[in-house]
Every structure is written in structure tokens, then in C-alpha cells.
Amino acid sequence: MSRVLSLILCAALLSGLVGCGSGQEQPTYQENKKMVLDLLKTDEGKDTIRDLLKDSEMRQAIVLDDPIVRKTIVQTLTTEQGQKLWKQLFSDPDFSEQLAKTMESENEKLLKQMMKDPGYQGMMMDILKTPEMQQQYLSLLKTKPFRGQIEQTISELMATPLYKKRLANAIIAALKKEQEKSESQQNSESQENP
Questions:
Q1: Has this prediction a pTM greater than 0.85?
Q2: Is residue 158 within 8 Å of 151, Cβ to Cβ?
Q3: Looking at the record's lineage, which domain of life comes first (predicted)?
């Protein structure tokens, strides 16, 4: 920032000295503006602006107004040149990854809100009920990788202590039920054959 200011101040000082030393009137605002713009168009002026934009403090100081940003994005997206630019940007994997990371939390919130919306749920159910989707699911279920994943998931589930306890309780309950059924049958047979 100091380089740009020093460049502008030097230009203004130079123009003032030239005007005073030659006995001429001081340059007008338009003449000063033209001189500063000419200086900024030089290679040194461009380098100075690039250096300024690399400075993190300077970037934080540049605040973009939301309506301006929104309008610019809409205009950029709707023009043919803008569409080419976006296609080019999205073809860059680094750009796509960074954009996805910045939007990830917002997309997650949006998806959670949509999942609670009955209209969206209905549309999803309609999609899932289509014969094409059902055929895709059946095809997926028949694949070896999917079956392997299911088997691994079941194995992991069966290895958990909570599941082992539930399974043991279910087996004990089933055995008790069978024992009670067997005892009741024996009792009824013994009553029939005294």
C-alpha cells in the first residue's frame, strides 16, 4: 500500500514542482488524474498493485458489498463469456475442490432442511419407486462388492458387545419359550393319558 501511495504522491509532487518551477499554473484535477492513471498502467505500477493484492491485510481491507457481488455473479453466469469462464474454472480440480469445501457445510444444512420437507420427501420417494431405480438397486444387490460390504458390516455388527448381549438375550428367550411350549405339551399329554 505504501508503494502505491508513494507512487501517487511522487506523481502529484512532480506535477506540482513542474508547474511551480516553470511559472505555469498548477495542473488541473484532470491532468493529475491522467498522470496517476498513466503511472498505474506502467509495469512498475502494475507490479505495485499485484503486491498490494497479495498482502493479506490489504485483501481483508477490501470489503465487497453483498448486492454488488450478487449482481456481478449473476451477470457473469448469464453471459456467454461468463459461462465459458465458469466451465473453465470448474474443469480445474483444485478450484472445484476448494469451492466444494467452502460450500460443504451450507450444502449439508440445505440437504437436512430439504429432507424434513414433505414435498421433497415425496419427490424422493417417487424417484426411488421408479422401475429404473428399483432395477438399479437389484443389480447393485447382486454385485460381489456390495455383498462383500454387507458381509463385512454384519461381521462388524456381530462383534460389538451390545449386539452380542442382545443376541444372547434373544437366544435365551427363544429357548425359554421352546421349553415352556415343550412342558405345556408334556402336561397336556400326561393329562390325556393318566
A1: no
A2: no
A3: Bacteria
Give the amino acid at 130.
T
Query: Side-chain half-sphere of 43: how many Cα atoms within 13 Å?
Result: 0
Q: Which domain covers residue 34, as residue numbers?
A: 1-63
Total count of domains within the chain: 1
45 near 7, Cβ under 8 Å? yes
Look at residue 16 and tell me if it is in a domain: yes
Amino acid (1-letter code) at residue 42: T
Complete DSSP assignment for 119-178: HHHHHHHHHHHSHHHHHHHHHHHTSHHHHHHHHHHHHHHHHSHHHHHHHHHHHHHHHHHH
Q: For residue 106, tell me if it sits in a domain.
A: no
Residue 77 lies in a domain: no
**What is 62-114 written as a DSSP string?**
----HHHHHHHHHHHHHSHHHHHHHHHHHHSHHHHHHHHHHHHHHHHHHHHHH
Q: What CA–CA distance (Å, rounded) separates 33 from 37?
A: 6
pLDDT tens for residues 41-76? 888 888 888 887 787 777 666 655 567 767 777 777
